[in-house]
Amino acid sequence: MNISIIAVGKIKEKYIKDGIDEFKKRISRYCRIEIIEVPDEKAPENISIKEEEQIKEKEGQLILRNIKDNTYVVALDLKGKELTSEELSDFIKNLGLKGNSNVAFVIGGSLGLSKEVLNRADFRLCFSKMTFPHQLMRLILLEQVYRGFRIMMGEPYHK
Ligand SMILES: C[S@@+](CC[C@H](N)C(=O)[O-])C[C@H]1O[C@@H](n2cnc3c(N)ncnc32)[C@H](O)[C@@H]1O
């Protein structure tokens, strides 16, 4: 399986970068994993809803350009469905069993994902009702994907 994480914005904090590199390395024992970073648009304070939509749309176009037709897309979305770690593990396993060899997880920027990206998504995944900053979200996602593979393989991992 090829897993890509398509994320808006750079990782600025070193401790998050280090964590991301560590989990990317760990996941690479189970599948091919790549991270595609698309640039974020500047979003000044006090912009209108219309301007916010335009920013999300621009970022969304860059995201969509990086998604191939045959890719199963999981959008990280606060309004999506919450799964347990075991359910996420089964979810990834079933994608593989159903022949989905390309899976992309998409993380939005500070304003979230455009409706075009959400419409392209095959599944919307919510990590909790709390909003996480996009940099941390990337690290949390990688840890949960790693945890998912460990569960799938019946390998021990901290509870
Ligand atoms: C700072 S959040 C954006 C918040 C924005 N107000 C929204 O409603 O989407 C940046 C990105 O991180 C992801 N994200 C943050 N918290 C999340 C959560 N609890 N569940 C799923 N995705 C989350 C989403 O992809 C979101 O677009």
Automatic annotation (TrEMBL):
Catalysed conversion reaction: pseudouridine(1915) in 23S rRNA + S-adenosyl-L-methionine = N(3)-methylpseudouridine(1915) in 23S rRNA + S-adenosyl-L-homocysteine + H(+)
Which molecular function terms from Gene Ontology are attached? rRNA (pseudouridine-N3-)-methyltransferase activity
From the UniProt annotation, give the residues forming the signal peptide: none
> Which CDD domains does this chain map to?
RlmH-like (cd18081)
Q: What is its EC number?
A: 2.1.1.177
Residue positions annotated to bind S-adenosyl-L-methionine are: L76, G108, F127, S128, K129, M130, T131, F132
Query: Where's it found, cell-wise?
Result: Cytoplasm
Q: Does the keyword S-adenosyl-L-methionine apply?
A: yes
The Gene Ontology CC terms held by the record are:
cytoplasm
Top enzyme class, one word, equals: transferase
Q: What does this protein do?
A: Specifically methylates the pseudouridine at position 1915 (m3Psi1915) in 23S rRNA.
Q: What family does the Swiss-Prot or TrEMBL record give for this protein?
A: Belongs to the RNA methyltransferase RlmH family.
The protein depicted here goes by the name Ribosomal RNA large subunit methyltransferase H
- Write down the species: Fervidicella metallireducens AeB
